[in-house]
Amino acid sequence: MTALAEEPGQIEEIVSKxxxxxxxxxxxxxxxxxxxxWNAAQRYKFASAETLIGDVRRPLLERGxxxxxxxxxxxxxxxxxxxxxxxSITTVHLAFTFMDADTGETIELPWLGRGEDPMDKGVxxxxxxxxxxxxxxQLLLPWGDDPEADTGSDERAGNGSDSVNLIEQAxxxxxxxLNAALVKAGLPAQQAPFGAFMRIPSxxxxxxxxxxxxxxS
Length: 217
Description:
The protein has 7 helices and 9 strands. With about 220 residues, it is α+β, with helices and mostly antiparallel strands. Strands 5-6-7 form a 3-stranded antiparallel sheet. The protein has a two-stranded antiparallel ribbon with strand order 1-2. It has a two-stranded antiparallel sheet with strand order 3-4.
């Protein structure tokens, strides 16, 4: 965007940066996010939401860029833990918007987040997860890890007594077919169902496998 500023004896062209250009500057200004948190139960380090937001907030606001969010749909699914207690997995579907306060230009992107809690903190955890993963993905923030290298997580998801990873069996099917398989197995349909197959409750795994095969036939 350009504008003309006239001074005595001269005309100067002023060039305004686009929102995309400002986001590039923000991404380039952040080298990495420190892992300042520790999950004692599963024994791994993580970057806390407070640290990530603190590192990203100033570079965005210095350039007049706001991050806005609106909640569209919230799904909750009960799950029995291996200890026999009931917990709840909450999925929030959001619309995140980057807004340029100088020009009013916006970029809107749909996003989701998941959180698990046996009490009333599931939505809060899901919102935090959504914000962290959104900022990390859109600004390409390096955290010094790779989810595919986390064999412990794969073992917990695929071989644990409370959930089974059926993501490979779910590949290639449409959202409608995946939701049909979930419902057939007695589980709730999801707006974005593919990710749900990473943690299928163990007691429903056999029925889900059969339902997936039925969808492929």
